[in-house]
Amino acid sequence: MAWKMKQGYELVVGLEVHAELATRTKIFCSCPTTFGAVPNTQCCPVCLGYPGALPVLNAEVVHFAAKAGLALGCRIARFSKHDRKNYFYPDLPKAYQISQFDQPLCEGGELLISTAAGEKRIGITRIHIEEDAGKLIHDERGTLLDMNRCGVPLIEIVSEPDIRTPEEADAYLRKLRTVLRYTGVSDCRMQEGSLRCDVNLSIRKPGEAFGTRTEMKNLNSFVSVVKAIEAEYDRQVSAIEAGETILQETRRFDQRSGQTYAMRRKENANDYRYFPEPDLGPVIVTETQLAAWQGELPVLPDARKAAYMAQYGLSAYAAEQIVSERAIAEYFEQAAALSHAPKTVANLLITEVFRLLDGEDAVICISPEDLARLADMTEDGEINNNTAKAAIAGVWQTDETPEDYVNRLGLRQISDAAVLSPLVRQTIEENPKMVAQYYGGKASVKRAIMGAAMRLAAGKANPDMMMRLVDEALDGQENK
Amino acid sequence: MSITSMTLTALCDALKRKELTPLEVVRSYLDRIHQVEGHIGAYISLEGENALLKAEESMDRLPLQGIPVAVKDNICIENRRMTCASRMLEHFVAPYSATAWQRLERAGCILLGKTNMDEFGMGSTTEHSAFHETHNPHDLTRVPGGSSGGSAAAVAAGEAAFALGSDTGGSIRQPAAHCGVVGMKPTYGTVSRYGLTAFASSLEQIGPITRTVADNALALSVMAGCDPRDGTSVAHPGHFSAQLGMDVKGLRIGLPKEMLAGDVAPEIRTAVLEAAKTLEALGAAVVEISMPTVKTALPAYYIISSAEASSNLARFDGVRYGSRAADYADLDEMYVKSRTEGFGEEVKRRILLGTYALSAGYYDAYYKRALQVRTLVIRDFRQAFTQVDCLLSPVTPQTAPKLGELADPVQTYQGDLYTVTANIAGIPALSMPCGRDEKGLPIGLQLMGPAFSEPLLYRIGHALEAALGPVTGEVHL
User: Is A303 in the same domain as A340?
Assistant: First the structure.
């Protein structure tokens, strides 16, 4: 059900998304970034913040972050720098996070989103580079620390406060995830924490200045982002209607209760005392590097979507579905190029192949050649759509070609009237009751008769041909 | 001449010619330490028998083969305690070695021990060590200077052939001056800071403390070098000993009048001006110049260094290593108690000062302002070096004070007036003895040059050293 404004208050949301970069090693040392390793096995004096250890910037981090910026239409700074963000927390071994404060790597991009309400551009204020912190593990032994994540490179992508509905927030996150995965700079696996989201939210009467905003940190699923926005919006509307003022504060969204709660004042009183990181030189990006990185970018989802609609006549919905993952889009393009029925390719892909895919990194277990062949056979009337789907499922993860599968099971469609006409006659003879009902004025019975005829043909009949024959048999010459 | 009073250069030659063995050298130093350390207190930890074992394994044909070295206790050496003279790290064992030490070790150096210092490098008397005082070998009732006081005292007292110090605002040069030895703060980036416990990252360098200028050039040549583990390190273009023995004819030497006025003790002013005359006699041209920003460098230094320190020392929180308070109710109390118990008064003062300078609402008035002053100081030096090849100044306004004499921190900070400028500007500065005051205490002078001018500074220092002859006198213990 679509979200609706309450009491005339407009929702104003900006999102800060942290995405872990998929570099092989950490941002300031050469420890691996592999997820899921035994706790505290991927650490060294540098990422553990030992006395005397110094950070050295991994050049690949700048490369990946700049690629993300380019894909999101940002200006890439030729000169940017690192700053220290100082605060105490046990998962932050140096008690400061190396980040970028006033001179980020990327600025001024945008992301095109589409919701049921249509398309919209969401501004991207900035993207900066920073290091991740470790993880606290609370168990029966007390609070333990896993430092493997310390120093995993992150980009923080800050949106403009352009988002006006929870649906837009959801669409923004999905699209952002799609674009980042296209560029290959991040896996964006929310359940592994490689994509995390902070929500800044305020409300106002349309046309008024922005209200005071609250922040909800570290939301780890799209669903909780939407739920947190809905809950916090409701809270702010009620508070203002009750004559209360909204405090600028960090709030925690509790998934169980579905409510947001103010965090302790102390946690809110942070003054991060940013200052330039003296251990690192400036980040310099040359024109040559930038041109090379631009050249590495794949064709992005918006361009692909437009091409599919123009070239293959796909619907916006179908095109959107296909471009949501780069691997699927590339698969589709291969299959479509081999087929004279690209729309059918798209249809089979979105329905049956998507149904069989399991999880976001799953592999398509039918070759583009085979899918193209099935689409062509369907288009040419050799098999019907259901057979095509059955064949995809039948050969999934096997070596058999779908054509062999169709032949082996004798699923080729019968389009020969000489074969089908006797079956129609037999159906009419065997179902006098239904025929009588039909002539008595119950038009819908025709479908049941059609179904019975298809059963006699063991499902292999060309449905269009069979329908025509049933029409002829029941309605005679008058319909011709 | 005893082994422990030989210069590093002479010792290297004797070892190379096999007139001495590493074992003999190390044993002599251990004997000397045994004899005098009770009076000096230069060391926090001693290697003892370990050093003898290393001497036995010592390899041939290394540039500093068998040379016994003392290392300031804020520099990491693998599997050795590193305390930074703080309760906070009293039992901390370093899991890796600093690059500067690695380079010395590979060159054949043998560790004698880790030296006393002001806690985390904050202080100029070594009295801020959490463990014990260090006594000036020239007068045991006086301080050796600081923060590398243990290193300077060890070299002056014959307890090490040379020593490593670190210099954030004079911490090598000032104790070198007080102890009558030679100390170099190299150009920023010359020696890797990897493994040096950070106090103020943008200001500090590791450097050698030696008996002679030539020794200093030799030690620095082994320690220096670009390090992939330190993003601020650079490949120094100079060959440190290359100009030793060359004369100083035609060189232009500047005397910044702001560094010879005001608070400087008359005897020190006289000694420095005498040295200038000696250089003139050797053919150099000495000119008085003006550096108006010198006075502003001191407050800028204290703001920048304290700001960086407040961040650099935040990692000592009792969570992963270092000392943790025994009783605490929650996380915040654990932080507060551990840091309250672990840090000494001077360290706390700097952390508070730095935290304040970086706080919202004060940043622009203090930290940002200090960075602007830094830019001006750099410009002033650049301007000066268009007129002269190097600058000559005192190292300190006073000779070594009595233990306990300096009580007021602000008064103490004033003593860093001449040394902090080189850290602010990132340029090299050499401190070497140039005389004695009435009490017989060593007086030091400072030579500062443009970035990467160490070979020139060593050349001038070496020529001056030869012309002045022995100036500080023997240490009698």
Answer: yes
